[in-house]
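Notebook entry, structure prediction.
Reason for the run: the old model in the group folder had no record of what sequence produced it. Starting over properly, with the input documented here first.
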Amino acid sequence: MTQTRMSLPTVSFAELKARFLEREETALLDVREEHPFAQAHPLWAANLPLSRLVADAWRRIPRRDTFIVLYGEVEGEDLVPRAAAQLVALGYTNLHRLDGGLEGWRAAGGELFRDVNVPSKAFGELVEHERHTPSLSAQEVKALVDAKANVVVLDARRFDEYQTMSIPSATSVPGAELVLRVRALAPDPSTQVIVNCAGRTRSIIGTQSLVNAGIPNKVAALRNGTIGWKLAGQALDHGAHRRAPRNLAAADRAQAQASAQDVARRAAVRFIRLDQVPSLQAPQRTVYRFDVRAPEEFEAGQLPGFASAPGGQLVQETDHHVPVRGARIVLADDDGVRAAMSASWLAQMGWEVYAVTDVEASAFSESGRTETPVPAIDPALLDDLPSPERYRRPYEGTDASPEAMQAYLDWEFGLVAQLGRDATHHFRVI
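New structure, fully documented this time:
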């Protein structure tokens, strides 16, 4: 390593790639705003924009001696010195600069990815590629719905996304809820189950979750989600409010628990009791603790020290929730299903992940939302921050152009090849 401005040691492309391959804890931080980040970045880069760094750093990177590598240049301005100064003021002690920044990564032969939440989306494409996850076209699903066939459509996105636009007749069942609640929604084994999202990832992961869990029904993803539906010229619903029932039959819950835990074991998830979780803390190890239940359940009662990360979104946005590659992840629920299924996917994505077993309802004793404090630092470090620049996803909202939607799908189709060229992912599909 060599020295550069602000006395930050530099880390080369080869050194950083070796850290990822050896699974050494590393946070590669792109400090540009979200929109430029989405145009090009390494696979394991996490976006922590300068405009949000002070507000979000303690929550997203809890260990102050984490090995952190910074890069980010916009219109000729090097953002690394400002980001490093803020991080030092926040107490971080192990800061580095990516040698040559993004262009140095590219020049050294590093693969660059577009869009956001790329590790999760690329993993979803690999799952479909290796498991041949069943799917049906928008036209085939519409024909089933129009004919009032024996079919249920389950929307695996967040409830607010579902309300914005949904497939006619669809019920909102966010990803981690699918295995837990599918038997209540499709008790007849002859019912065809269709899983959809806005694009591809949550449809694929949701469908494969049900396949992995061994439900007796035929299951298929809606190919290309609501994007495929719109590109086929078919009308979507708006403002729908159908949700899965909260109360479950004891037999359905027991069956879901048994199948979810079997999937988790096959994926090499580690099971742990709640009282054993503190034992995971160790020098130079980061531990993230997430409650994967629905947000309203989390608001009503929490496990001390656990943050809310509904399971489907955690699998979809892993880089946002866990920017330290190589960290440990602990997941908890109150049913033995949602944590196990979410953990099964994170384990396949190469994470060291634990599912908490047999959590008593009384353990969820805290109420309200516990926020990570925002520290006070020298106000001069916050002068002239960049304006937030959010990336508009081609699949969000109702006004995306057909050209943008098709380009997004074409990009997703190429992710498996990009993973092969990058070769740092450690993904494996059971």
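Summary: The first strand starts at residue 10 and ends at 11.
The old model has been moved to the deprecated folder.
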